[in-house]
Each structure stands twice: as structure tokens, then as C-alpha cells.
Amino acid sequence: MNVSVKRMRAIFIKDYKEFSRNYAISTMVLMPLVLALFYQNAGAASLDLYFLPVNMTFAFVTTFIQACLIAEEKESNTLRSLMMSPASMADILIGKSTLVFSITIVIVTLTIMILGFTPANLFILAAGLTISTVFYIGLGIICGLFTKTVMEASVAILPVMAIFSLGPLAMGLAETYSVLEVLKWLPSSQLIMLEGYSAAGNITDIIISLAVIAGWTVITLVIASMLFKKRLKDE
Amino acid sequence: MNIQFTEVKEGSHTVLPSFSFDAGLTGIYTDIKRTQVIMNQLKPAGYLHFNNDGLALRLTVEETFRYHKDLSGVTIPIEDMIALFGLQHEKKTKVKDLSESCRNCLSFLRPFLYSKDLLIIEEPFDRLDEEGRKVMAQLISRIKEQEKTILLLGHNLEELLIVTEDLYRIDQNGFHKMDFNEGTASPAEEEQPVIRIEKIQTKHEGKTILFNPPEIDYVESVDGSAQVNVAGKGYNCTLTLQELEKQLRPYGFYRCHRSYIVNLQKVREIITWTKNSYSLKLNDRESSVIPLSRAKLAELKELLGVS
């Protein structure tokens, strides 16, 4: 597979310009920041509440924008020309993800700063957040490939938000309904627990948490690239 | 490149007969339905181009060119490429604000860069203004220079003739190479200017209609029979093009193409598409554009007294 920085950069620049001029999508990045302000004023205390805006950011910014970028490409029928061009699948996917990756990192950092949250171990949290970002980008690609228009993409992220962003909250009910114990293995729950473990300084638990998140990420990326290949053939 | 079609039937009616031919820059003169069938068959083999397809509407023209230049890795400078597409005055315009004709030209950028050996274009000159057609004719001849096979599908013969004379038409029985070589026009002898009435007899819905030669805009040959065009309507004529040419010559008509006779009184403009492709624009009701053979250009200019 030949990877060309020049082609990835071309896709990145094009996406950036399209994104910044499409206010329906680009104003979405403000949402988590507003949410963070609310929580900060309400005085969030528990880890669960600190991480709710962060997990929301992943659904509303990372997955949503990534899905829109892919769906838009399908809507205007340009996916086929991308396939015909010398750009390889890696070029297209990496080029298309770089923009969302950088936006997510900025927004998540800002959210955490607004919340006034001080991580127990900055390095471990950063690692967890970075791997999570890649996971949600993969989800976004899958959502984008299943939808045809930007409008459909905005509906497709709702289940992502319900399961991954709100899932950790439902864990509180796990004592009543033991089925809900599974929710513990969601990457978003693991992210919260990771922070808890790193505060406690428990190395084994930290590694297990990171491994779970990484596992989700790898599976998602494999599914996303398989779907992408299949879609290109169908076009 | 050899192109093969397999037969497509609809009941007992043959939509597309099976056929195989060598294509270079080849036009197929056919209707919408057959165009669809052909496009479906050729989809795996080549690059299909439709007008107004696949543009990022929020980019400016210049950004679009830069994006595709980086993506394709071509070495032509951006400025030259933009000029080639006739968009040098629209560089900073967003794609969504372009005129339809400019946008259709711009959407040809992708096939121009990404088509491999076979490019299929549906209605190449559809929804383009005159400037756009000129650009399109030049772009097609540029692609042809790269030894690529180009197949044009369209139902407008005049438009196809702008770029190629290698044309086929399709009917129930098969593909027919369109013959524009039905004997070279014999040099008409100088006739004495004698006043006489000569009506051109045509048939229309069972009626016989007579036209005075000056009324006629142009005559074209459709499937071997002559069609007289008056005020935007075509009437069938039983005479051959050659007989008509002889009869009409004294009235200022000229055989500007193997299958066209034009009323020189009605010529408004000589359009130069590329160095060796021309058309005549008439000032009839439809502003018809009819093809002009390269070989006839010099003689026509002489007849019209222009240089």
C-alpha cells in the first residue's frame, strides 16, 4: 500500500475548508464546551460527571463530524473519483481522519480545562483519550458508510451517543439489574475507570483498561476498513 | 481499443444489438434509453462521466484545482490547468456560485485527470454555453492525444460532430457506421442567373408541403434521407442531398458538410472549436449550430467574402 503525505495533505486541506464553511457541522464543536460550562457551574464532583462531557464530545464531535465527512463525500458522488485517483485507501482514511483527530484533541483538552479537572496522571489519561479518539473516528467512518446524506448521519450518531456516552451512567443501576454489568466493558466506562485506577496507582488495572479500549479500537478499525473496501467496490 | 456490447432484449424488441468495434474517439448517436443500457454495460470497463457530478460545492475553483492536482500528482501548473478549463476569471468563486456551464466544465476535471484507458461521456455538450463547448471540445482533443479511448453518447448529432466524424447509430438491426462520404460533391458548374421559381417539395404527415428556398434554414441528412429544416421544424424530402444541393445552389445554399446544406443568407457566425473543428451558427429561430467540414472552410469564407 503506497502512502503519500502529499495526497493525505490534499484531502486534509479540502476537508478543513469544507468543514469550516459548513456551519451546520462546524458549530457542533461548541456544544461540548457549553455543556462543560454548565457542569462546571453546577459543580460536578464525581468522576462519572466529569467524564460525561468528555464522552459526549467523542459522540458529538468525533463520531458526528467524521460521519458527516464520509457521508458528504457520498452525497456529492465524489467517493468514486477518490477511488479512481491514485490515492490509496490508507491515504483516504488517514487524510480524512486527521482533521477530526486534531479537532477532538483540542476540544477535549478545552473541555477538561473548563471543568477544572486535574488528572491523577496526565500521561495515562492522555493515552486513554488518544486511543478513544481513534475508536470514535472508526465509529464515525462506519456511521458515514451506512448513511447517504449528512442528515442521515446526524441521526446515525444517536445510538452511538446513547450507548457509549450515556452507557456509563446506567452502570449505577447495575446493582439492581446485574445484566448491566456488561456496560463496564464499554470503552467509555473503561476510560472513567482508568482515571480511577491511575488515581489509585494500580498498574495492572491501568493496563487492562487501556487494553480493553485498544481492543475496541482495533475491532472498529478493522470493520471500518472492511466496509470501506466493500463500499468502494459497490460504487 | 476494442469495445464489445452484448445483446439486450426487451420482449421481442432489441434494445441493444450485440456489436464489437474498434473505438478511438467515437460517438454513438442514440437515444436516452440505449445510452443507459450502454453505460451499464461499460461501467466496469471504464470511467463514466456525467455532467455536474462530484464537485465539492464549498471550495473555490482554485482550491478545487489544487486539491485534484495534489491528489492526482499531475505536473501541469495550476494556472495553466485553470486556463485550459476557461475558468481564469472565476478562480476565487465558490463552486456553488458558478454558472451552470462553468460548473459542468469544472466537473470534467475529474475524468480529465483520473480516466484510465476508456472514458465514456454522456451528452458531452449538454447544458454548456458556447464558451463551455469550446473548452469541452479542446479538453476532449487533449485526452485523445493521450491515446485514450473516448466514447461519446448523445442524441444530438450536431454536437457529436463537433469533435468526431467516427459515428455510429443504433437501431433494431444493429450498429450502423454513419457515412459522411457519400461521394464528394461535384463542383457545381457556374449557372446563368435566370429568374425562375423553384419550390422544394416535402412531405409532412401525409401532406405535400412546398417551400421557397429562401425560407429554408438548412438541410440535413438523417439516416440517408434529406430533412429540410424550416423555422425550427424538420420536413422529410424525397430528393437526395446531392440533388437538393444542385437545385438550391443558385439560391445561395452551400454544402458545408457531407450531410448538411446550409442557407448562406442565414449564417450568423463561424465558430472555431479547436484548430480543426468548426461549426456554423445560424440566425434562425433556434440559433441552430451545424457542423462545418474543415475542408470546406476556405471555400465558404471565399463565398461569404470574409477572411
Automatic annotation (TrEMBL), chain A:
Keyword Cell division: no
Membrane topology reported for the UniProt record: Multi-pass membrane protein
Domain ABC-2 type transporter transmembrane: 38-224
Swiss-Prot/TrEMBL keywords: Membrane, Transmembrane, Transmembrane helix
Molecular function in Gene Ontology: ABC-type transporter activity
TM region positions: 21-39, 51-71, 92-117, 123-146, 153-174, 206-228
Domain of life: Bacteria
Compartment annotation: Membrane
The name this protein goes by in its record: ABC transporter permease
Species: Jeotgalibacillus salarius
TrEMBL record, chain B:
Originating organism: Jeotgalibacillus salarius
InterPro entries linked to this entry: LytR-like, LytTR_ABC, LytTR_DNA-bd_dom, P-loop_NTPase
Matches recorded under Gene3D superfamilies: LytTr DNA-binding domain (2.40.50.1020), P-loop containing nucleotide triphosphate hydrolases (3.40.50.300)
GO molecular function list: DNA binding; phosphorelay response regulator activity
Residue ranges of domain HTH LytTR-type in the record: 200-306
PROSITE patterns membership: HTH_LYTTR
Alphabetized Pfam families for the sequence: LytTR (PF04397)
Domain of life of the source: Bacteria
Protein's UniProt name: LytR family transcriptional regulator
